[in-house]
């Protein structure tokens, strides 16, 4: 193992990578940040909450323009590189009729009432009647004010037109997408469907057409065959899936088989690691040995729809279960790379600044009082909300094809909000002596595989090279860890966490643990300093326990130094006491997609 703190200025590193670009395409690939999960006025639940931004408005916001939301001007401090509007397809037709005066059914009594909702109580009643009680049932269906598939097609066209309007190859990528929002038995099985280009079907698939994910995959195959579409699906909120995201049986009650595993591996290369409704990597209750598992756990999700957490609801466990299935079936159904999103229902793409959080669900969490004392009905208490997360991809250029291809090959990462960059390569022949991130990348592509890749069978232990770079406007870095998971010959899954590279002159204690980095946060002012930590970290690790006959995965987790949580900023700004039920400070982080090893 090597431990090196690489302190070259981030700007110099970026310039060195840029020097490898050729005619606008960088073979060493650039980090691009974006959003793959958000909602506008075309989503009924968002509209009920007061969202009036349309898809084009949200993409303008993503590009750095100012918008007005709930009476407040909002503007990203830095534009995004890419974004997809993913409105709930279930209500596209209903919202088209609601919003446009010349649309069929616009003057229906129900839609007049919807447009006139004023009090929070009225809005909550509508949400529970038409969203929660309907979508989370066994047989969800359109409400009585639905005027037919022609209205759905019109709403879908608005999303398509907005993406076409704002897509600017090389400057900003607007992807076409939608959310399929199935929740059978109250378990969250939502997927965001993202297209590679503008070859899309006339109508997207709704969970009212089917709430069985196997039939979504069948539709995706049909759409590929008949419409020439290229698409993928991204599941999210596994923490609220009630065991259904990484199941023992399929939607029909049958044991997971090779057909299921192959279909899921084909259509779902990624999973959303974190969003406004908490972090789905791990939970402190089930990962007591992981000192960083107590991060945005979202405990109060469990108050709603009997969504009691189990270990099987979290991504790391899902990855391990996937190894066991691969050992049994020959294919891994849960070979999932990582990506981030917000699930913002105000129409604000990647509104992830801890110090500027206004909630994400209109009046439900739009005030300090509501965030501290109430919450988002049917989902989560306000104090447990996260700001969401952001998607990162390593792509050759900022175009639809290059961004989508990075997602498909799983060369992606997720962060809890900051735009910190993280990278990982694996291979038996990699140079373990790394002190130059550019040379590390060149070596990684020529002799190994990037994150998201698969290591071929080898008798030699793999080496993993890692690099993390702080957000230029954010906090320094604490450490990079590698998380390994594997399955034994008997089918038992295991994991371990390794501190690979860290800032400062800390040394492991007698138990092998690394001391904390420290904390510079002043809780009376909600300010911190970068007097500790490093701007960049680079290092390597070789697996001393490698067994060439065991299926395994490895992913990296990079942590920042402690910074104030959004609840602390709220308290300090408003002269209120800190909330004892949530941490005053957090360690923001990034996760790379795993690298897998298969002996097959």
Provide structural commentary.
- This protein is 24% helix and 21% strand.
- It contains 14 helices and 27 strands.
- The strands form seven sheets. Strands 1, 4, 5, 6, 7, 14, 15, 18, 20, 21, 23, 26 and 27 form a 13-stranded mixed β-sheet that branches. The chain has a four-stranded antiparallel β-sheet with strand order 17-16-19-22, covered by helices on one side. A two-stranded antiparallel ribbon has the order 2-3.
- Helix 3 (55-62) runs parallel beside helix 7 (149-166), helix 4 packs across helix 7 (149-166) and helix 8 (213-227) packs across helix 9 (258-267).
- Mean pLDDT is 95; it is low at 1-9.
Relevant terms:
14 helices, 13-stranded mixed sheet, 600 residues, four-stranded antiparallel sheet, disordered N terminus, alpha+beta
Q: What is the mean predicted local confidence, pLDDT?
A: 95
Give the termini distance in whole angstroms.
27 Å
Q: What Rg, in angstroms, do the CA atoms define?
A: 23 Å
* Low-pLDDT stretches: 1-9
Taking the sheet with the most strands, its summary is: 13 strands, mixed
Q: Which range does the strand content fall in?
A: 15-25%
DSSP helix fraction: 10-25%
Coarse shape? globular
Structural class: alpha+beta
Number of helices: 14
Tally of strands = 27
